């Protein structure tokens, strides 16, 4: 790619001849690696015009740089960055001698410190990726998405593609959610009760920022989604973990004085338990009595292939205390970065204003493409295909788990895309994960899910959303073998098990 | 569209016959407007299978609803929501009798309160839209974008489209920014010094959250971009406005003790003044002496058609105190929702972690499409086309302004996409705007740009990014006529002019 004239500028106040300035600028760009060997410079005529200097000034600077071997001149075709330059640069640029701004004292580092580091970005390179929440090329209807994206790129959709929507959402997408998706969860909501988000992660962030402030308390399930804990920590609220049991969050264990309770009632993350209806009613009654809001993350409802459909908490929320979070990350694909909040119009107005301030709106093109994907029936077809594939994969996985004598840690009633397992006594799932990596097996150790990571060491999550049914038995066999090796290596300290 | 079986569920604990529950659910959905006249219900067989009940239960419920005229039965083709239902619903649903959750006491309303309400969402319906920051179909290369989007939808790009990238960015896009865009501003940056954002708005939000906390102080230009003030208010930092002059922000007026200074040095928003090099050097020297970070919003550098190119503050920042913000909203289109931060690696690590928590990442598809748009040269071509069109429009506008005797409020040296005007003494630009709306003319009153809105009443912004050159003279004529009418209506209180 040729280097454009725009890459150059002169400083009339620099007190240096223009020709020298230009030379220094080219040398600095070459030594910093911005200009690379073989790249073509602008013509002397174009560069002189751009800089507002005489052409001879540019020509002199170029000639000088050719003589010092920074540039090479090829007859009639112009000037290029010299090929021999890379060798001379191996020593690297000299250390800067100016004082540096003291960033360490300016930054608390609280965001980077809270970051989760146990996920493998290059999971596609593993033969047995039991990773959660990624897209499977075999299940996503790429051709249908492409077709919908083409429609959303049409002439008539220019405004939704290019415009600044301020704080508005795509009306077709919101309408489809209100009329076709929420009713499946028993939820009836008007337009002023819905706001689009950049996935469930962004929805949780908005909720935390609107509801909580430093000093307020909130209750969360323990174990729970690690990203949720990061978000709540960043709000500086007090986080009170409530241990879940086989029926999810026990309402009578919620401490007094909390402003909000975060729950994954229909499909507890990561244990996959389902909260029965009496407990749901009790939770809502307590919300009314104690004055706390209930944040319901219904992140995976489309994947409930194993149990009978049960209504969302929001569906039986007559007082309007529930803030409902939905996401298209699991049923479409995570890269779509779209989800939604459903709540009282006053709450939605706040969340919408905050979203506008943070990022304006999710890209209109993604919204419109998803609206087409939904209204043309691709979403239903894809969710169906996923449910069927997941049911098959889970059956294969449960058989392999039984065959190898591994232990399920909780009832697995409603389906979903993962299982929650316990290690044999004394085995740390982080050690298991480390031992499995070289064999191409990726599992999720339990520590990240717990308020006290030690409590999670005896657990791990195995997702089947990105591994084929054919690969599952061998992957489980590797896990069983690694557990056997760890046991053979000697006794372990018993782990605390909640 | 047929109503799917998923829209229905039963509650075994409800203490009501299943047939009655099903009927109530259909009636509730119809009265709430979720099911609409003419929509087809699932077959009795499909619905019975879905709910796990006998088919006769569903058939009985349907028969009952046909007799009460909620449903209509068409021979052999099934059941439909009755056409006569809409007439019966005119009275609306009854008022709920349950106590409601007390949202008013839970919400501070601080985000919605801070929201800007002076922008017209339907600006496309106006004949003379002097609106800022929107895309012009005549200048955006829609066909090229479409072509790039098609590439980004190809089979080989499945992962960048669908995957959860955790906190990573598209490497091709970052590489292009580092090698081809930043050098034009004199900036040299490595990959660990760049993070992508959802436009400049999101970049400012990230910066404010990382740098500021309740109680810390920051200095901003006055007037300045209204969205920036909203963001800083939300961080609960102390905001100290510093009046700008014809050369932008005066460094010696920055109050002591600030943690950060926000500036639009190259192209002050909204006055369009350019900070000269000596002042830039003084600002950076003070940053080093007083220990504040400098946040440089270089939001429109591609549109500098009128002046010679000058380096960014970041280009001469040897201490590493500058956080640089770039955006593709102006040079590509605002709906792309992509921008970037360039700063010290420690700062970028914090901003990246925070972005991951807030929203993970901008959609991979938008990132990859933009990477193609840049690397295929469409960005350069489009920015060029915009610069040429803006130069022409501005010339037409300046001629019309001179012809009608309107007043420019500041020197307009470097180009851009708008002019900053002053009203004749005593005229409030909000009144002017209100008078112009019925004539199809949209202008931006100055109040929103000032820390003290009263100070902005004597100013207004006229952008030429979304109005054709042909329309400009008549639009300016309307403005002059409206000012004449206001003057004729009588004397006005003199406005404070900074």
TrEMBL record, chains A, B:
<dbReference type="InterPro" id="IPR036388">
    <property type="entry name" value="WH-like_DNA-bd_sf"/>
</dbReference>
<keyword id="KW-0238">DNA-binding</keyword>
<dbReference type="GO" id="GO:0003677">
    <property type="term" value="F:DNA binding"/>
</dbReference>
<dbReference type="Pfam" id="PF00155">
    <property type="entry name" value="Aminotran_1_2"/>
</dbReference>
<keyword id="KW-0804">Transcription</keyword>
<keyword id="KW-0663">Pyridoxal phosphate</keyword>
<keyword id="KW-0805">Transcription regulation</keyword>
<dbReference type="InterPro" id="IPR000524">
    <property type="entry name" value="Tscrpt_reg_HTH_GntR"/>
</dbReference>
<dbReference type="GO" id="GO:0030170">
    <property type="term" value="F:pyridoxal phosphate binding"/>
</dbReference>
<protein>
    <submittedName>
        <fullName>GntR family transcriptional regulator</fullName>
    </submittedName>
</protein>
<dbReference type="InterPro" id="IPR015424">
    <property type="entry name" value="PyrdxlP-dep_Trfase"/>
</dbReference>
<dbReference type="GO" id="GO:0003700">
    <property type="term" value="F:DNA-binding transcription factor activity"/>
</dbReference>
<feature type="domain" description="HTH gntR-type">
    <location>
        <begin position="16"/>
        <end position="84"/>
    </location>
</feature>
<dbReference type="InterPro" id="IPR036390">
    <property type="entry name" value="WH_DNA-bd_sf"/>
</dbReference>
<dbReference type="InterPro" id="IPR051446">
    <property type="entry name" value="HTH_trans_reg/aminotransferase"/>
</dbReference>
<dbReference type="InterPro" id="IPR004839">
    <property type="entry name" value="Aminotransferase_I/II_large"/>
</dbReference>
<comment type="similarity">
    <text>In the C-terminal section; belongs to the class-I pyridoxal-phosphate-dependent aminotransferase family.</text>
</comment>
<dbReference type="Pfam" id="PF00392">
    <property type="entry name" value="GntR"/>
</dbReference>
<dbReference type="InterPro" id="IPR015421">
    <property type="entry name" value="PyrdxlP-dep_Trfase_major"/>
</dbReference>
């Amino acid at each position: 790619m040729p280097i454009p004239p725009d890459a150059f500028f002169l400083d009339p106040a620099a007190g240096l001849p223009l020709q020298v300035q230009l030379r220094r600028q080219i040398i600095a760009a070459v030594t910093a690696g911005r200009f690379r060997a073989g790249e073509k410079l602008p013509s002397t005529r174009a560069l002189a015009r751009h800089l507002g200097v005489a052409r001879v000034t540019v020509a002199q600077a170029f000639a000088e740089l050719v003589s010092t071997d920074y540039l090479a001149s090829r007859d009639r075709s112009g000037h290029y960055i010299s090929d021999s330059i890379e060798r001379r640069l191996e020593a690297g640029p000299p250390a800067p001698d100016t004082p540096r701004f003291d960033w360490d004292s300016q930054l608390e580092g609280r965001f980077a410190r809270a970051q989760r580091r146990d996920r493998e970005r290059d999971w596609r390179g593993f033969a047995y990726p039991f990773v959660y929440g990624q897209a499977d090329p075999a299940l996503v209807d790429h051709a249908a998405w492409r077709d919908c994206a083409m429609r959303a790129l049409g002439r008539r959709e220019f405004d939704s593609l290019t415009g600044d929507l301020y704080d508005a959402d795509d009306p077709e997408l919101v309408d489809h959610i209100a009329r076709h998706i929420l009713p499946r969860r028993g939820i009836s909501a008007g337009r002023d009760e819905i706001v689009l988000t950049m996935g469930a992660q962004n929805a949780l962030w908005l909720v935390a920022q609107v509801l909580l402030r430093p000093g307020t308390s909130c209750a969360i399930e323990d174990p729970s989604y690690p990203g949720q804990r990061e978000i709540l920590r960043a709000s500086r609220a007090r986080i009170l973990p409530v241990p879940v049991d086989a029926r999810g969050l026990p309402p009578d264990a919620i401490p007094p004085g909390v402003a909000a309770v975060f729950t994954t009632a229909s499909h507890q993350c990561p244990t996959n338990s389902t909260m029965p209806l009496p407990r749901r009613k009790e939770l809502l009654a307590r919300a009314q009595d104690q004055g706390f809001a209930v944040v319901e993350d219904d992140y995976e409802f489309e994947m409930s292939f194993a149990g009978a459909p049960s209504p969302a908490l929001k569906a039986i929320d007559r007082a309007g205390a529930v803030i409902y979070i939905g996401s298209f990350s699991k049923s479409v694909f995570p890269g779509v970065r779209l989800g939604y909040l459903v709540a009282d119009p006053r709450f939605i107005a706040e969340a919408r204003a905050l979203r506008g301030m943070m990022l304006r709106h999710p890209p209109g093109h993604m919204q419109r493409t998803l609206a087409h994907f939904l209204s043309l029936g691709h979403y239903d077809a894809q969710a169906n295909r996923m449910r069927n594939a997941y049911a098959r994969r889970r059956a294969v996985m449960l058989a392999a788990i039984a065959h190898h004598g591994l232990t399920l840690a909780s009832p697995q009633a409603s389906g979903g895309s993962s299982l929650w397992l316990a290690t044999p006594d004394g085995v740390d799932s982080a050690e298991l994960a480390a031992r499995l990596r070289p064999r191409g097996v990726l599992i999720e150790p339990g520590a990240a899910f717990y308020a006290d990571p030690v409590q999670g060491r005896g657990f791990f999550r195995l997702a089947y959303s990105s591994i084929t049914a054919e690969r599952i038995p061998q992957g489980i066999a590797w896990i069983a073998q690694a557990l056997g090796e760890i046991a053979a290596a000697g006794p372990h300290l018993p782990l605390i098990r909640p």
